[in-house]
Predict the structure.
Amino acid sequence: MADSSHQPDGIAIAARDLEKRFENVTAVGGISFDVRLGSVTALLGGNGAGKTTTIAMLLGLLVPTGGTIYVLGTDILADRHTALPRMNFSSPYVDMPHRLSVYENLLVYANLYGVSEPRDRVRELARDLELEAFLNRPLGKASAGQKTRAALAKALINQPDLLLLDEPTASLDPDTADWVRGYLDDYRRRTGATIVLASHNMAEIERLCDHVLIMKEGRIADRGAPEELSARYGRQNLEEVFLEIARSRNRAGAAR
């Protein structure tokens, strides 16, 4: 049974003192944050900042060295199988089987998630995400952009309440990437889903996200709405804020 006693009302994710060490390397160093239900929250940071490790812990794929995680009212460390059917994940860096067609891959995941009328759901997503032209192509013969769109379809197959996205528009041309952002925004508005987005695309974050967690060296260097961060640092946009933090010119007391 889900235990929401440690998760405040209106919060989709509550992480407290979350830490992950690999031998002598600290990938995530005791971070705490909340993600509001129905929001889009960005994890922003350079390579090695701890974003992907954090997402893996939220999914229950990595066991934290310390700390607690409550996701959708469930202690993800004790009972992740209660929350997982309501979640999904997409990354262009995590491949599906190449020998199966795009259609076969999506059908496998639809069945794994217990989707009712799985064939109809795959056809619906293929239409919505414009996959029909390569639906029967082996995934290994799809282009990088086509694989990215197939991975997004996989992430939406169970109509998740919580969607975790790692670089969701990588390898897409600017027009298709813009279309995907619009689709994600529409999905959130239609379903009330919560989205956590790791991205290096500042325009993407500014367009989609309500809140930003800026990570550096496994810790949260700062947090806030994109416009709040820009104002706090006296910068024109989020990219300038990111560069200031990445280059260690942090304001006193920024991390909190």
Summary: The mean pLDDT is 90. The chain has nine helices and ten strands. The first helix runs from residue 51 to 58.
